[in-house]
Amino acid sequence: MATERKGLLLKADPISAAFRDEVKKDLEACSSRPKLVGILATSSAPSNNYAEFTRRQCEDLGFEFVLKKTGAALSSDLAAGEGVEEAIIDANEDGSVHGIMVYYPIFGVQQDHYLQQVVSPLKDVEGLHFKFHYNLYHNIRFIDPKSLLASPTPSASSASTVEPEEPPAGTVKSIIPCTPLAIVKCLEFVGVYNKILPYGDRAYGKTITVINRSEVVGRPLAALLANDGARVLSVDIDSIHEYTKRPRVATNPSSEPTLAQKYHPRHIVHPSNLTLEECLAISDVVVSAVPSPSYKVKTALLKDGCICLNVASDKNFEKDVRDKASLYIPAVGKVTILMLLRNLLRLQQYQQTSESS
Amino acid sequence: MATERKGLLLKADPISAAFRDEVKKDLEACSSRPKLVGILATSSAPSNNYAEFTRRQCEDLGFEFVLKKTGAALSSDLAAGEGVEEAIIDANEDGSVHGIMVYYPIFGVQQDHYLQQVVSPLKDVEGLHFKFHYNLYHNIRFIDPKSLLASPTPSASSASTVEPEEPPAGTVKSIIPCTPLAIVKCLEFVGVYNKILPYGDRAYGKTITVINRSEVVGRPLAALLANDGARVLSVDIDSIHEYTKRPRVATNPSSEPTLAQKYHPRHIVHPSNLTLEECLAISDVVVSAVPSPSYKVKTALLKDGCICLNVASDKNFEKDVRDKASLYIPAVGKVTILMLLRNLLRLQQYQQTSESS
Predict the structure, then answer these.
(1) Fewest beta carbons less than 10 Å away: which of A168, A327, B95, B324?
(2) Catalytic: B178?
(3) ipTM exceeds 0.90, yes or no
(4) Which intervals hold domain Tetrahydrofolate dehydrogenase/cyclohydrolase catalytic (chains A, B) (predicted)?
(5) What CATH number labels B178-325?
(6) Which of A39, A42, A82 to mutate to test the interface with B (most CBs of B within 10 A)?
(7) Following DSSP, what letter does each residue of A115-145 receive, concatenated?
(8) pLDDT of A5-53, one tens digit each?
(9) CATH fold of A178-246+266-334
């Protein structure tokens, strides 16, 4: 009965079902149909597939989706990325467009970061703009929607460890990057988040290894989980950092809390002396997002009964992962797209607020 | 008489002399002494040396310089980068500070990009904030200083091919990233820029190879040179792009100018079919900024009589470079620091404008 002892394989559909219903309901309540523009600037097959996936999901739910092709996506005579910045600016300036999604990678990490800042934060359904990362890293959950067009570091509403049901008057929820948010929603679904604990501390007691520390997935995810109380071991190619909200003994006796720390209580980060093997041995959850087909987390190193979640398009876990893992989620894309559409609905509202004020 | 045939070795001192005088004069006219805060967050020897170099230059010229050490720069018990974001935010919020300089690299390209957005653009003497890169890439030379605290993509004053002596009323000059600007000033000094040509076209007719396409040096430099009329061959590890302001035949017959192109006439970028060897063979100027001691531009490939400029801390040219080059500039750091101090003087003024309005 070897197969009976295997851990559970959990596909994203049951996780996304509740969000699907929520998004459908919110869409019905909309005065006008939200319009998402996808911008495809390369001939990459995964980007093309993801664009078609976005279209199907949008049309299925009743959102308007327009795919704008540019550069190598438009013609084999053109280079990857040609015209993509202009396409973004046109969509920023087009009042009929409520959300913008760009299919990365295009130029590579540095120039793609630049493009992510060109997308207006008021239309940034992916939550990749610096302002949203800043809010996330500083645990700023509510913002004045007008701040998305103002001050370089957004003015914060006071952070609170217990979230009220609704944002304080005059504020709205900050946008959280789609993929990290989808991962959190998966972990909520499978009970890693404990609903008995107060909001903002529901991952307290959990040790979570996150393999990848990019600005798009790994670092925002580590910050989100730590802001929710988890001990996060953030693993990258050359270092392991620990993200935690719990106080630790200051190694520098003269250090006092900075203004920022006083105003925005949030997680702290320090280097870890643990090895990857040691991290895996103590982790209740392992999330891997390494963009390489050859990278594999060794099943033998996992803690028995842990929860494993693959975010990479290539599988980062070995075939026998469920011999050790109690639960394995192989992909999160179907949850990610719903977080994106939820962001689209919110941003459409924020745009109306900004216009009317 | 082999040595007589060698090209000229030009150190940065004669180039920086004129800027030194200009900065000194402008400093004397200041109502209050500008204060620069340097933030050092690693134990890296080059960063330490550069911080001490900044201090000497500031004190020599009469600027106030305060070095704020944090993380591994403060104590060997602390990690590289620990507390650096808080130090930046404190300096942003400290009214007595006029400029902020952070010694990179700290975490690596992605997280360092994030930090560059945390520095307030009103204090960003290095010109590394997204808003300044956006202006540069769009050839927006004059900005409303208030825009540095407002709208995510700055509102442009109309671009002009002929620069007036002074910015149009209500606008100020945008800040240009220090290192690319210092390189342009070197090329102006050695006559690559032709003063007989109209402003904005003074590099017309010159072919320039730039080796490196980072967002900090190579890409902004390519854009600056192309905005000034040069044909720029931008070489990176996996591709060669051509930056130019000259029109070319559209490869896509249906493409019309975008809103952005209509509003901000600027350089265009397209992929090149040339190899590095072919680029070097036709280049009047070769700028190299590859952060590797083993990378060398082969002297044998250079066009006879070209001008070579090394920006890397390791020398990217071979010892015999002057056998082919008519002129070789081995380092630009002394010009860069003066561009930084010039930015500091300007930003101090912009801060006063923003406060009084």
Answers:
(1) B95
(2) yes
(3) no
(4) 10-126
(5) 3.40.50.720
(6) A82
(7) HHHHS-GGGBTT--SHHHHHHHHTT--EE-G
(8) 788 999 999 999 999 999 999 999 998 999 999 999 999 999 999 999 9
(9) Rossmann fold (3.40.50)
